[in-house]
Amino acid sequence: MIQYILECIAFQLVFLVIYDFFLKRETFFQWNRFYLLSTFLLSLVLPFIKIEAFKTTVEQPYIEYGEELWGVNNALVVGVQEPTGIDISWQMVLFVSGALVATLLLVYKLRQLYLLSTKGDRISFKEFTQILIPNSNMAFSFFKSIFIGDKVSKRDYTNIIAHELVHIKQGHSWDLLFFELMRIVGWFNPLVYVYQNRISELHEFIADAKVAKRDKNEQYQLLLSQVFQTQNISFINHFFKSSLIKKRIVMLQKSQSKSVFKLKYLALVPLVLGMLFYTSCENDNKDDAIDNDNVITVSSVDDLSEEEETMVYTRLKSLASSEEAWSLKVKDSENSLKFESTKDNVFVSGINNEPIRAKMTIDNNGSPKYFKNFSPSAGEPYDWKKIYREENLVPFSYVDKVPVFPGCEGEADVRACFQQNIQKHISKHFKYPEEAQRQGIQGRVSIMFTIDEDGSIVDIRKRGPHELLENEAVRIIEKLPRMTPGSYEGKIVKVPFSIPISFRLEQAGFNPFSVDANYVQMQQEQIAKLSTEAQMAYGNSVAFRNVDNPPVFPGCENADDILDCFKKSMYRHISKNFRYPENAQERGVQGRVSVIFLMDTSGNITHISTRGPDESLEKEARRIIAKLPQMIPGRHNGKQVNVPYAIPITFRLR
């Protein structure tokens, strides 16, 4: 978002510079009006436009880290969770506060107009409504209303009305109101105010030029002889405004610009093309800079089928015969390996879970020597001390004094406290992306960041199965507080730290394929503990898998497969409403909670029973199920019946 705002402001600045230096003094007032409105709108949409023909890659500096830095044994498993409180950044508070102030100012200005309209005498004409203000010499228009003071001389009245009618007919108030609204959403952007000022000037030039066609000298004398005061409202068309009188007189005296000068507007074409070229540039991500044609998806990187191994081997051999550098990515749902060649050698590196530093050579037949199952028999040792000397960077496991997480200053084991607080931070701020839930995306994201010499979090890197999960991991890490920096050999150093985060939908919900699988066992053990009323209700029920027409989840009425839609809707409901109890997190409690409930003959959710390792987890499971909507009841033998349903919900911290 910040990058978008900066790009918009930069584009607006360039457009305004072009206007002020090349177009402002020309008498093409309508062209200039179109220029200001269109370039402002262009500045808002250009950052979103990516043109394939202009796309290029901008290389970014990259530091190759060794396997030790990725901390593959510190995996944290997280599931769908609701935040435990309102999570609002200070930037959002500042933005909303400024927008609120700007909105209140707009309301205040509208109230001023309203009070003026109620104060004056209203006279309706065919093209406008005149509001005569007592004891005043003001003159301005707002949409189809012309506010004019009763002290304005009759000699000037005709020209003033003609002038304001130009504003009304051309809809100038819409321009000013548009920029007034832009001042609310972009109150922090000074160029919005500049744009509004420029468009306000143009409105006066346009109206003066129209009226001057009838009697230029009279209009000129009117401006020269009188300077009246009017209300200080930024989005009305003033007739007399001291700061504009001189400019309006100058523009009235100017000769009409030659038509050939309209060619100046053509400068906008290369300018916009340059901006499009800039917005189409992409940062070079070393992990992703592989042609899609050179990506092979397999069932498992660690255990290839014979067919998959042949396919990958054939592709590698084909690439190896080329004299040019090449890349090939082989990936499954969670893991990925990248092969790169510089003609003579092939380098293999893991991209997701367990990065590998290895080199493979090409034999005389052009085939990779150490290819079998991607397990190279020769590797290059990782020299972290070399990186320390060159980059002042020491791995977390080798640093003398690890960075100190705020609150761990007095702990005996600062290293363990650091890791515990990192995990608590991730659990607290974690939000499973809704789009990833809808698409069923899960997997492991390896996230690495560096704690800089001043304790700030920099150089965040991510490697995962999907951009949605990667972005969520980065968002969490960006919220980390400033640390006390680490040191090595008495010197403050940069310390990289990594923590793979496994996104598991079933950890916070359930496996759709196992729903109702343990119903019989739960029915025997749990129903016996229920009240007599509940036992009777369950006794008069028909098992979900045996009912002729199962209950219908709201929204699944027209689904092709109602049963599948029911399971998926149940899954989404649990994922959306899940919240890991804080008390259970602090005590490290986790495990599976078996839940059974009844959908009665009215479709209501009743008789919820749970069995789990801890009361707090059972309570959370009951809360989620109690929020289920009313179903369309199930039917058996043509009658509405009670239908029980069982769901195992797994709570897991790691």
What is the typical, i.e. mean, pLDDT? 75
Task: Summarize the amount of helix as a percent range.
Answer: 40-55%
Structural class: alpha+beta
Distance between the termini: 32 Å
Main sheet summary? 5 strands, mixed
Q: How would you sum up the global shape?
A: extended
Alpha carbon gyration radius: 35 Å
Low-confidence stretches are 57-86, 226-233, 283-290, 351-359, 369-382, 507-524
Work out the number of β strands: 24
**Helical segment count:** 19
Strand content: 15-25%
Keywords:
single chain; 654 residues; alpha+beta; 5-stranded mixed β-sheet; 19 helices; 41% helix; extended
Q: What does this protein structure show overall?
A:
By secondary structure, the chain is α+β, with helices and mostly antiparallel strands. 41% of the residues lie in helices and 17% in strands. It contains 19 helices and 24 strands. Strands 2, 14, 15, 18 and 19 form a five-stranded mixed β-sheet that branches. Strands 3-4-6-5-7 form a five-stranded mixed β-sheet, with helices on both faces. β20 (591-599) and β21 (605-611) form a beta hairpin. α3 (90-119) packs antiparallel against α5, α4 (154-169) packs antiparallel against α6 (190-225) and α5 (172-185) packs antiparallel against α6.
